[in-house]
Amino acid sequence: MTAMTPCRKCCPRPSTQLLVGLLCSLVTLLVLGFLATIRPEESFSRSLPLLIGSGLGKRHIDTLFLAPPTAFLLSPSPCALTDPWLVVLVASATGHAAQRAAVRRSWGSVRVTGGRSVRTVFTLGLPGDVAQQAALEREAAKHSDLLQARFTDTYANLTLKTLAMLGWATTRCPTVRFLLKADDDVILNLPALVRYLEQLAGPPAAYLGQVYSHVEPIRDPHSRHYVPTSLYPEPTFPPYCSGTAYVLSASAAAAVLGAARQLPLLPIEDVFVALCAHHAGIAPHHLDYMAGATHYPPDACCYREVLFSVHEVPPDEMLSMWEAAEQPCTTWQRFLGLTRCKILAWLAAEDTP
Residue 216 has what pLDDT? Predict the structure, then answer.
């Protein structure tokens, strides 16, 4: 044991020690009081440039690109050499078991359509407690469709989640033709979408969805969509496909992943994908019938015969629409449903900047 060095002339006097202690206590109280007045979103927003722009994010990206066995806590089996033609990558949250169940029982149950094989995988991060992780492991063992990356499942990490799913798909499904990213509250018309994708005769690097243009970054630090000028100084974002549902060809996905290594991470995943695509020389292509953020009332004929995707569909409605779609539409239902659907789609296209 090292003996304590006796106090000599260099040690402060007791009165000086007391004064320093009082000043430190006062500073500590002021700092704690200041932090207590900051709301969680504001606190996160102020630290955002440090978190997203740091080397930590880049190390995450490299790990996800290389996709070693340790990159994911839970992972589905790799794709077979001959399939699938389309992989649907659903961004889910750890607590969204009901949403995943509804997808599995509805459009996610589709394995083959139009002679093309389809696979659906749910991507999420780490939960906040052990019990929820145990539930996810049971769910993964039962369904074999969960991809869990090693970062906290938060909205701020949605960009990392998207990179994780793209990285997994491009390395574990090397022969896939198209990747479709969707949220877990989206209902997809896979037969109609596959028919459309089969007709593509353009360049192999395809990036398709509901395109938004001339969108300005939100500079309000209180918004969860906050993007500081230090991270993105331009006045507008490049045209981007709504993150609710968009399609990337395999070559476009690889180009996005390659560009992501060279760009600062943004917390808005659909914009970041567009920035990567723009960096790689790939422009988004607008699809009128990818609903984007437009809300459509429940209508099985509309969902089945016009739209490719519909956003903000709760689990019970998703199941009811799927069951209703199995029944043929009457002439009157088809007329009303398709007319309303096409009008809403046309209005959404007109409102798109």
Answer: 95
